[in-house]
């Protein structure tokens, strides 16, 4: 890739992140970012990435959080299967809690050099979002606009059916159960800044089909991986998201900054 094309690719990813931040920053853990593994799709067989981080606080808040994630990919010919799971476990003031559990399965069929068809399903919970359970299934095409060794850019569209249950509480929407039909649009990119630095970014926009202007979710995740030794890297991640119709007593806006370590295999 020539230098001007690499510069343009970086600019596109950074601009996408900036626009998302200005519009509204991390929806509930609804989106899986598979970009760290997509660069390995060219090879046959399995690939994976194991990640972990820790949040330890003392003083005004006695908090210990352990965050783990596993991302696995199997590729054979025109077929790719991706599975991602993650979870947060912690203790606050001596009391244990599980903040979030997330699992995502995605199948991709390459139709042509430009188009890949995707089918996906997902299960998640989020304690601090009052989300007891969210399940969803979806399908749609993905267009690979740029596919180079130094970087990639893809655009995806999908129909998504979502089933959501809120927890029981004192709020008016206690125990609410909803079934929604959504459109899922995303742009995602990866660029190798040099031999040790890799930048990935994904932005999602997910409006409800019967109320596209009133009920939508906007989400982005930007990751910088700093290679230490072969397959081992430090990671810095920024998640930004917005939910225009959150549950009662849940803020519309979230931001998350994480530091961790990942091991690819």
Task: Explain how this protein is built.
- With 265 residues, the protein is mainly β.
- It has helices at residues 3-23, 35-38; strands at 45-57, 63-76, 79-92, 95-110, 115-126, 131-147, 151-166, 177-192, 197-207, 216-229, 232-243, 253-264.
- Helices cover 9% and strands 63% of the residues.
- A hairpin with a 5-residue loop joins strand 1 and strand 2.
- It has 2 helices and 12 strands; from the N terminus they run ααββββββββββββ.
- The chain has one domain: Beta Barrel (Porin), CATH 2.40.160.40.
- The longest helix is centred in the first third of the chain and has 21 residues, at 3-23.
Blueprint of the fold:
Layout: H1 3-23, H2 35-38, E1 45-57, E2 63-76, E3 79-92, E4 95-110, E5 115-126, E6 131-147, E7 151-166, E8 177-192, E9 197-207, E10 216-229, E11 232-243, E12 253-264
Antiparallel strand pairs: 1-2, 1-12, 2-3, 3-4, 4-5, 5-6, 6-7, 7-8, 8-9, 9-10, 10-11, 11-12
In short:
With 265 residues, the chain is mainly beta. It has two helices and twelve strands, in the order ααββββββββββββ.
